[in-house]
Every structure is written in structure tokens, then in C-alpha cells.
Amino acid sequence: MEAYDAIITRRSTRKYSEVMPDRELIEKVITAGRYAPSGHNNQTTHFLVFTNKSILAELTEIVKQEFAEMEITEDMYISMKNAVNASKKGVFVFHYNAPVLIVTANQKGYGNAVADSACALENMMIMANSLDLGSCWINQLHWLDENPRIRAFLYKYGLKEEETITAGLVLGYAADGMPDRNALERKGNPVTWVE
Ligand SMILES: Cc1cc2nc3c(=O)[nH]c(=O)nc-3n(C[C@H](O)[C@H](O)[C@H](O)COP(=O)(O)O)c2cc1C
Fold first, then answer.
1. What is the CA(156)–ligand 1 centre distance, in A?
2. To test ligand 1's pocket by mutation, which of 60, 114, 139 has the most ligand atoms within 8 angstroms of CB?
3. Domain segments of the chain: what residues?
4. Which CATH architecture has domain 3-59+94-172?
5. Could you write out the DSSP letters of every residue in 52-102?
6. What is the pTM of this model?
7. Residues 92-118 pLDDT 10s
């Protein structure tokens, strides 16, 4: 698939098949993330790759419990309100049961931490689409970056104390087979040409 097509047809997938993509495909996606640009060529984005079902189930349970404990406040971002509400009802699965979760982390206090990770995530999402894999940005672990239970859990699997959780990505085959490739109409993202 041409780069332009892979970019234009990329969509977020939120229903996944249980089938684990071949390791070679997962590694291609991670490599695409690792080859993203970084501020001052810092290359400090750390990719934590989870493919173990029971570890993912344990993490899902902790995320649900921690959101269920939160009080909804007026200033809360709508997606976070939804996560809290669903968790209080006991039905929140933050990773949509995708077989692969890639958590990105970066150095605490590094000004380009989230920007670098965003470049990596976009590269990974485009690569996934070109390989007929679905993907979706997953922000819940970023929101819970300072949550002691989440941090303690991730320390067991490679997160370093000096790192901040910047984002997450789920990956896998779409439940329907192929990812949805119908681009959403662009009503925003205006362009101003100055000639
Ligand atoms: C910074 C950022 C955070 C996002 N967080 C989430 C998330 O936590 N869960 C989710 O399902 N989608 C998340 N998304 C995906 C967006 O909802 C999605 O890209 C948007 O609705 C447009 O749909 P499309 O990706 O299918 O084009 C996020 C996207 C970005 C760029």
C-alpha cells in the first residue's frame, strides 16, 4: 500500500479478533514506531509490548478498579467521564480486548515526551493499516500515569521510575476481518495557504 493510501484510509479499530498477529508483523509495527523522528534525535521513547492474555486481563482489572474509584468532576474530559462511568458499572475494557497493547513511556520532565511518542504512535498506526491490522490510540494509562497501582504494575514489566507514561496503542486483526478504511470527513483541521 502506498504511504498516501495507508495514511488516508487509517481508522481506529475498537473491535478485535482474538487471533494474535504473527510476531514478524508486530515487530514491523514496532520498528515503524522506533524509526519515528524525535526532538534532538533523543530516541528515548520506550515501547512496552504486552501480548500475554493473563497479564493484559490483570492490567484491565486494575484500570477498571482505579477508574471506578474516581469521582466525576465538571472539568473532566468527556472520554474520561465515560471511562469512569463504565468502570463504576464494571464494564470497562480499556484495550478493547485487542491481543497486543503497546505502552509508550518517555523521560519525566523531557519537553518532547508526548510529541515524540505521538510521532511513534502515528507511524505504528499507519504501518498497521498497511499490514491489514487494526489499531487504536489508547490514552487511559497516560491519564493514570501518576496512579501508584498502575505504576507498580508497569514497573514489573519494564517501566522505569524516571519514565512517564505518554500513550498506548492497541493492535490486532479487526473482528470483521479487515479494518474499516472509510475516512471520516474532514470538517476541521483548517488549512491556510500563504502564497
Ligand atoms: C491523542 C489521542 C488520544 C486518543 N485516545 C483514545 C482512547 O483513549 N480511546 C479510543 O478509543 N480512541 C482514542 N483516540 C482515537 C480517536 O478517538 C480517533 O482517532 C478519532 O475519533 C478519529 O477517528 P479515526 O481514528 O477512526 O479516524 C485517540 C486519538 C488521539 C490522537
1. 28
2. 139
3. 3-59+94-172
4. 3-Layer(aba) Sandwich (3.40)
5. -HHHHHHHHHHHHHHHHTPPP-TTS-HHHHHHHHHHHTT---TTTT-SEEE
6. 0.97
7. 999 999 999 999 999 999 999 999 999
